[in-house]
UniProtKB/TrEMBL annotation:
Keyword field: Endoplasmic reticulum, ER-Golgi transport, Golgi apparatus, Transport
Matching InterPro entries: Longin-like_dom_sf, TRAPPC
Function: May play a role in vesicular transport from endoplasmic reticulum to Golgi.
Assembly notes: Part of the multisubunit transport protein particle (TRAPP) complex. The heterodimer TRAPPC6B-TRAPPC3 interacts with TRAPPC1 likely providing a core for TRAPP complex formation.
PANTHER family for the chain: TRAFFICKING PROTEIN PARTICLE COMPLEX SUBUNIT, TRAFFICKING PROTEIN PARTICLE COMPLEX SUBUNIT 1
Protein family membership: Belongs to the TRAPP small subunits family. BET5 subfamily.
Cellular component terms per the entry's GO annotation: endoplasmic reticulum; Golgi apparatus; TRAPP complex
Transmembrane segments: none
BP terms from Gene Ontology: endoplasmic reticulum to Golgi vesicle-mediated transport
Source species of the chain: Seriola lalandi dorsalis
Protein name listed in UniProt: Trafficking protein particle complex subunit
Lineage: Eukaryota, Metazoa, Chordata, Craniata, Vertebrata
Source organism, top-level taxon: Eukaryota
Length: 145
């Protein structure tokens, strides 16, 4: 069980934060291109889910999986998008993403007068607290399978 990486996007698709823990394979493209591809995929999946759902879904999609990993998704009311990739053994990380938003992002970014909202998250305190939180998760393992 492990966490591979985490993206935080703003409502316009700009990647505000990215970190990886147990990522084995690199994409072979620049990070900026990877961010654009990830956001485009999220945009397309959200659109597809909203059009195909037989019910009016309040939360949209929460996650999807491939044969190698599971992508977990959480969108805030303000349009921030938190995306975490884990291995397949992690069934639901929605509470984890909500915690990252409400207890780490709000506390160390929103309430920090030095941090400018809508720009890259350069807070060392946020990064260190997030890293400690991820490493303390029950499904985090430094030795990815």
């Amino acid at each position: 069980m492990t966490v591979h990486n985490l993206y935080i996007f703003d409502r316009n698709g700009n990647c505000l934060y990215y970190n990886e823990w147990n990522r084995k394979k690199q994409a072979g493209i620049s990070k900026e291109e990877e961010y654009k591809l990830m956001y485009g995929m999220l945009f397309s999946i959200r659109s597809f889910v909203s059009k195909m759902s037989p019910l009016d879904m309040k939360e949209g999609f929460l996650s999807f999986q491939t044969s190698k990993y599971r992508l977990h998704y959480y969108e805030t009311p303000s349009g921030l998008k938190f995306v975490m990739n884990t291995d397949l053994s992690v069934s639901n990380a929605r509470d984890t993403l909500q915690h990252i938003y409400s207890n780490l992002y709000v506390e160390y970014i929103v309430k920090n007068p030095v941090c400018v909202l809508g720009h890259s998250l350069d807070s060392e305190l946020f990064s260190s607290r997030l890293d400690a939180f991820i490493r303390a998760l029950p499904f985090y393992s430094p030795r990815a399978a």
